[in-house]
């Protein structure tokens, strides 16, 4: 574990989360670059929240508006919480990993579970359309803190095609492994280009709620999924957990690493972020993200 002084203005839980995965020293180097856009496929976001770097947030048109219509709605709460981890101001209570990056908001659900241990879900068709939309809007990284509702006619094929499109366009997809505590996978987490994310506790141990599997262990990473504090849809901060909360730590690390090496290919960045944590994968449990080691690996590779 790489440690560094806590960043000013952050809560007592956030620095623990950031230090656990080596993000703190990388965050002292950069707040991200606007050309590294993160596609947030989630719920609507409270775009008027004073702790969001709203100037770096852009709507990608879809069936649901990017801005929250009701701050008490669970989908708004979830979308704002994830956005806060990624692009909140560094003076906020949120982890605020990459406020200098652009956030492309493309909501796909208008309802979400209120319990932070659960994950909001969408159909494969809705998710596939959103992936293509954010890629066409310029996303370099996609954050999927969502789950599939279940099989639907033709949906799996559409999603496979959307993930193929991401691979061809050099867009890195980071997706929650799921909170059912099962061994297996989904169309998303089995796709070799996707980085699945499992939740780790603050002691650096995998949490029992996380789904595991061969593809998750081979291609995935662990990230903080216990007592993560970020923005609520209103003024009060919110503390949640699970793999959906863990996912933006990996997405943010990818975006920060790419911001430091904007000329690098998607394959180079993905390899640095996943392989720096553990070059050899032999179990169904992925290693914990080490963002600082990823940065060092990129520095060495491109020196």
Q: Would you report the number of β strands?
A: 11
- Report strand order across the widest sheet: 2-3-1-5-7-8-9
Largest sheet: 7 strands, parallel
Which percent range describes the beta-strand content? 5-15%
Question: SSE string, helix = H, strand = E?
Answer: HHEEHEEHEEHEEHEEEHHH
Describe the structure.
- This protein has one domain (13-301): Rossmann fold (3-Layer(aba) Sandwich).
- Helices cover 34% and strands 14% of the residues.
- It has helices at residues 13-20, 23-29, 74-87, 124-136, 155-169, 214-219, 243-260, 266-275, 291-301; strands spanning 37-40, 57-59, 102-105, 121-122, 141-144, 147-148, 172-176, 195-200, 221-224, 228-231, 237-240.
- It has a seven-stranded parallel sheet, with helices on both faces. Strands 4-6 form a two-stranded parallel sheet. A two-stranded antiparallel ribbon has the order 10-11.
- Helix 6 (214-219) links the parallel strand 8 (195-200) and strand 9.
- The radius of gyration is 17 Å and the shape is globular.
């Amino acid at each position: 574990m790489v440690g560094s002084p806590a960043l000013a203005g952050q809560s007592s839980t956030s620095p623990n989360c950031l230090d656990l995965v080596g993000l703190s020293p990388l965050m002292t180097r950069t707040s991200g670059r606007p050309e590294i856009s993160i596609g947030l496929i989630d719920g609507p976001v409270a775009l008027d929240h004073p702790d969001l770097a709203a100037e770096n947030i852009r709507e990608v048109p879809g069936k649901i508006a990017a801005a929250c219509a009701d701050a008490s709605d669970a989908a708004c709460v979830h979308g704002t919480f994830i956005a806060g981890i990624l692009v909140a101001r560094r003076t906020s209570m949120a982890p605020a990993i990459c406020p200098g990056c652009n956030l492309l908001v493309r909501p796909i659900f208008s309802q979400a579970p209120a319990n932070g241990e659960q994950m909001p879900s969408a159909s494969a068709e809705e998710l596939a359309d959103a992936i293509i939309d954010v890629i066409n809007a310029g996303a370099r990284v996609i954050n999927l803190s969502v789950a599939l509702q279940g099989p639907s006619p033709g949906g799996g094929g559409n999603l496979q095609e959307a993930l193929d499109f991401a691979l061809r366009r050099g867009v890195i997809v980071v997706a929650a492994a799921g909170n059912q505590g099962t061994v297996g996978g989904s169309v998303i987490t089995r796709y070799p280009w996707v980085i699945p994310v499992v939740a780790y506790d603050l002691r650096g141990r995998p949490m029992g709620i996380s789904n595991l599997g061969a593809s998750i262990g081979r291609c995935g990473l662990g990230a903080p999924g216990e007592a993560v504090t970020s923005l609520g849809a209103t003024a009060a901060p919110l503390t949640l957990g699970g793999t959906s909360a863990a996912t933006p730590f990996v997405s943010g690390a990818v975006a920060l690493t790419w911001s430091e090496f904007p000329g690098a290919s998607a394959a180079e960045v993905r390899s640095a972020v996943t392989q720096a944590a553990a070059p050899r994968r032999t179990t169904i449990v992925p290693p914990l993200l080490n963002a600082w080691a990823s940065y060092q690996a990129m520095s060495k590779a491109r020196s």
